[in-house]
Each structure stands twice: as C-alpha cells, then as structure tokens.
Amino acid sequence: MRTPRPLPSLGITLIATALGAGLSPVAPGTMGTLVAIPLAWACARFGGHLAFIAGLVVVTAVGTWAAGRFCAAAGRHDDQRIVIDEVAGYFVTLLAVPRGPVELALAFGLFRLFDIWKPPPVRQVDRFVKGGFGVMADDLAAGVYAGACLFALERFGVVGKLAALVGVGGGSGP
Question: Is 174 domain-assigned?
C-alpha cells in the first residue's frame, strides 16, 4: 500500500483544488465546475467579454503552473483533487455565447457530460499529454466540444426558448 504524499504549499493547493473544491470526497470534478459558475458570471457581468477572456487566460496559465506543481508533489499525473482544469474548461464552454442564467446552467451540464465522456481526441489528450498542461488540456478540449454544442443550441433558438420557459432574461453578450 502506497503512503500518500503530503500536499504542496497552501497557495498551490488552493489554486489546483479551486479553493478546496477538489478535496471533496464526492464528485470533486463537479464541485470544481460549480466553483467556476460564479467566477464566470462575475467576469462576464462586471468586465464584459474582454474580462471573460482575460479570466480564461489567467485561470489556464496559473492553473497549468499549479497543476504541474501539485502533480509533482502528489507523485501522480492528474490527481483527482486537481480541479482548476474544470474551471478553465467551463470558461471555454461559455466563450462564444451570451452568459445569462440559462447559458450558465446548460454550460455546466454540457461541460460535465463531455468531461466525463471524453470523446476522441479528448481521451487521447488525457492519456498522452503530461505535466501541468496535460492536466488542463483534456478539460479545455472538452470545453470546446461543450461550447460547440452550446453555440448550436444558442443559434437554433433553443436557449431563448428555455429562457422564456423558465422566465429569465438572456445573457450579457458573447
């Protein structure tokens, strides 16, 4: 039986685990994606599209660094406690659509679907790309799939119909 390695520094752990969400004993990836929702909403609402893009870039860059450090300290690639990649993947999912309540909810479901399913080439990225970027890359790729589906739902009017059905307004612009 392997003795678990200690966690890295508190700062790296807080970043890699998305403020501790990845330490959840139940569905850490889902918990990490839940952390992304208010962050994505705040970036879109208070800073617009450029702030949203900046948020994605910062989360991806800092997350890549922290994930690499966490993997090294934990002694294994893509430790399940690392969920900053879910935050970045969720941001990618929302990149090309308005970010209203319905889009945020659909993005959550679609991203979790593609992150768990890992259709090709997401699964290959997960297997063969290592290090901090490898941890991030498969979730970024899953975000592209989820984002393409969300974009199609938006363009075909499905999101608008759902918004009207539940009585909420549209997003804040792409």
Answer: no
